[in-house]
Design goal:
Elements (H helix, E strand, L loop, with lengths): L7 E5 L3 E8 L2 E9 L7 H8 L30 E4 L10 E8 L2 E8 L4 E10 L2 E10 L5 E6 L4 E3 L5 E6 L7 E6 L3 E7 L11 E5 L10 E6 L5 E7 L5 E7 L6 E3 L4 E3 L3 E6 L3 H14 L1 H4 L9 E3 L1 H4 L5 H13 L4 E4 L29 H9 L3 E6 L3 E2 L4 H5 L19 E2 L5 H17 L4 E4 L17 H18 L4 E4 L9 H4 L4 E3 L6 H11 L8 E5 L13 H8 L3 E4 L8 H23 L1 E4 L6 E7 L5 E8 L21 E8 L13 E4 H6 L11 E8 L1
Helix pairs in contact: 5-6, 8-9, 11-12, 12-13
Length: 702
């Protein structure tokens, strides 16, 4: 006999609490916020939430359930829209079972009248809640699903601001703060990947919250395709966040007995500001089993060939670049686009994943042997989801691409998208990549995706955007199982595919195609709200950035790239002796502090306008690195004092500048000093007077 259902259920992390209450026979979040006292009775929360009946309003409110349902009369957007030819649309699934563990709650609800079952799975890992909704068709006929949200999470009414993410190619992860009013804040993406302009995450805060103060919530959808994010405020004052994969018309139909599970929503909350929200996410990702492989060795410093040679491959030139890369401390040499088939430009060759005999008559073996003899690993660029019309693969299988005939394809980098929803496409691409991994000692794949899924129709005429993403996941999962030692980077013209779903299958995100160090500071700062430094590809680019045209110094380029998974993407032959020495010193500095950067707690600093500042603090509080970059000319004669965060107030710290090698600015602290943590955090210190486009890195040791 099943145990009787309780009125409320609770999960606790170190710093958060979740209370799910059964209201009108459906599960609904009563509380999601900072940790509650252990002995607090959830009935208190229910009593405090009680409201009188309003004029011209229902006698009682339809619950804001984990899945708000049309059959309940919920006045807002339902969490599920499904039907059978226009019937069975008003779902009314009621709770029938609850499973509870120390860190997990599973609620099962059934609607026999309309033939469906809902299962809400909520798991608390550290201080991050991962929650999914599973819909099962228990009826006798197919069920068409228009949309299905992950569990819907309420926000308290005093949360008045949303921070959404926008951007573009080479300008990803830009923040936009907006006040919330009545109605719906909506962010949708139909590009077939997470996109550069609609990252599937948002932050919600009290109006006075900043990096260190105030109540802040974080929400992220772990899905690598089309998505919809909404924050809805009803006229009755209730406010909620819903996230879901966005389905195209007719894309999802469940046969009797079939199920659909949403991507997970990842949520966290803190009353210590936005910085604590980020640290919750970082700790969550670092604790995942998939992340442990990155702890087996230090994250190797990269050299990528792209901005040195582009498509102009010459094995002798590349071997010479490998020698120069090894000399400055590089640990992994990555051969980028241009090594295969007829790929002498972006107009041909995609899909033909065989080494070009014209460019590499002896194959990649001699170059790889050279790279490995220099003590470096070898990595390779691939783009298996794409095909050029000018390729042997397309000529053999033109039916393998996504499209919506008779409409012409939108031109996009001279390439089309292979339909990964087709088993034969997945098998072919897996086999082509596996053949390379079998033939050569490749330690790393840069898996790129350089166009949107603009017209994602399959050969049968049905929409295939969701099937493509699921097919991609299947191929990546299979490669990881077969070649567990090979690391994979998620690249999509830079940061166009960055989310927790793809990171369950990859080891790094190429954050942006722009290596402009000043632009990268804002890109990397936005990225850091959800992802830790060791997953962030960050490279020292050429002196003149090929995207912005800006000329920036080597010390600044090093200071920016040093705080991620560091690499170099420049023609090392073009560097003079001083630049080469600075680069080698920068790589050495990164290696000296790599463990701190890749395991420490990030503290973004609310600095003055025109300044980018942050600190990375060791877990034990014993040391820190502080980055301070002057973006624009300061308004006054002297910069505002910089107050640090995350230090032990009672401890003493030795402070000294460790970068650049030649700090030209006059500064009383140039030779360092010893200071109490409380003084550094509460009074702060005056940074050196810097020119725009220059940076200083400080090291603090307890």
């Amino acid at each position: 006999m099943a145990a009787p259902l309780s009125a409320a259920y609770r999960l606790d992390g170190a710093n958060v609490s979740l209370v799910v209450e059964i209201i009108a026979e459906v599960p609904a979040v009563r509380y999601w916020g900072p940790r509650l006292p252990d002995d607090l009775d959830p009935a208190e929360l229910s009593a405090l939430a009680a409201r009188a009946e309003a004029n011209a309003s229902p006698a009682y409110e339809a619950p804001l359930a984990l899945t708000p349902q049309a059959g309940q009369g919920f006045p807002g957007r339902p969490g599920l829209t499904a039907h059978r030819g226009g019937l069975d649309w008003a779902s009314y699934a009621l709770l029938v079972d609850v499973e509870q563990a120390a860190d997990r709650l599973v609620f099962t609800s059934r609607d026999d009248a309309h033939g469906l079952e809902l299962v809400h799975d909520l798991q608390l890992s550290g201080d991050v809640l991962a929650a999914t909704t599973r819909l099962t068709n228990i009826g006798a006929e197919a069920l068409q699903v228009d949309h299905l949200a992950a569990p819907v999470i309420p926000l308290p009414g005093f949360v008045g601001q949303i921070i959404g993410f926008e951007g573009r190619w080479s300008g990803e992860f830009q923040l936009r703060r907006q006040d919330l009013g009545m109605g719906t804040w909506l962010h949708e993406n139909r590009r077939g990947r997470t996109s550069h302009d609609a990252f599937p995450g948002l932050l919600a805060t009290e109006r006075d919250a900043n990096e260190t103060r105030g109540l802040a919530f974080g929400f992220h959808l772990g899905w690598s395709g089309n998505h919809r994010l909404s924050v809805e405020t009803l006229a009755d004052g209730r406010r909620s966040v819903a996230m879901e994969a966005l389905f195209m018309p007719g894309e999802i139909s469940l046969a009797p007995g079939e199920s659909l599970t949403t991507p997970a929503i990842f949520a966290t909350v803190s009353d210590a500001g936005l910085g604590a929200v980020s640290r919750h996410y970082h700790a969550f990702l670092r604790a995942r089993p998939e992340h442990q492989r990155l702890r087996a060795k230090p994250r190797p410093v990269h050299y990528n060939s792209w901005e040195a040679v582009y498509f102009d491959h010459d094995p002798q030139v590349l071997m010479a670049l490998a020698e120069k890369a090894a000399a400055v401390g590089v640990e992994r040499f990555v051969l980028d686009d241009g090594w295969f088939g007829s790929r002498r430009s972006d107009r041909a060759g995609l899909g033909d994943w065989q080494v070009s005999p014209d460019v590499y008559p002896q194959g990649l073996g001699p170059l790889i042997d050279k790279v490995r003899a220099l003590g470096m690993e070898f990595g390779l660029w691939v783009e298996p989801e794409m095909v050029n019309p000018d390729s042997d693969l397309f000529r053999a299988h033109p039916e393998w691409v996504l499209g919506t005939p008779p409409a012409p394809q939108i031109p996009f980098r001279h390439q089309l998208v292979l339909d990964f929803g087709r088993p034969e496409v997945r098998e072919r691409m897996y086999a082509d990549v596996a053949t390379l991994l079998e033939e050569y000692p490749i330690a790393y794949l840069k898996w790129d995706m350089n166009r949107d899924l603009s017209q994602p129709g399959g050969a049968d005429g049905r929409a295939g955007a969701t099937a493509h993403v699921l097919g991609l996941y299947e191929v990546l999962d299979r490669l990881r199982a077969s070649y567990p030692a090979v690391e994979i980077e998620s690249c999509a013209s830079g940061g166009g595919r960055a989310d927790f779903g793809i990171l369950a299958r990859t080891d790094r995100v190429w954050t942006s195609d722009s290596n402009d160090a000043l632009d990268r500071l804002s890109i990397q700062r936005g990225f850091s709200h959800f992802f830790p430094a060791e997953l962030m590809g960050a490279h020292v680019g050429p002196t003149r950035c090929h995207i912005t045209g800006r000329v920036l110094s080597m010390p600044l380029r090093v200071a920016t790239a040093l705080f991620g998974h560091m690499g170099i993407e420049a023609d090392l032959r073009a560097l003079d002796a001083e630049e080469t020495a600075d680069l080698a010193a920068g790589v050495a500095l990164h290696k000296a502090h790599r463990d701190l950067i890749h395991t420490g707690a990030l503290h973004r600093i609310d600095a003055a306008e025109g300044v980018n500042a942050f600190a990375v603090m060791a877990e034990d509080g014993g040391e820190a690195l502080v980055s301070y970059t002057m973006l624009t000319e300061q308004r006054g004669y002297f910069a505002e004092p910089l107050r640090l965060a995350g230090l032990n107030p009672a401890a003493e710290y030795d402070l000294k500048a460790v970068w650049p090698l030649r700090l030209k600015a006059e500064w009383p602290l140039k030779q360092g000093g010893r200071f109490r943590g409380a003084a550094l955090m509460q009074a702060g210190f005056h940074p050196p007077r810097l020119h725009p486009g220059t940076a200083v890195i400080l090291h603090l040791k307890r």
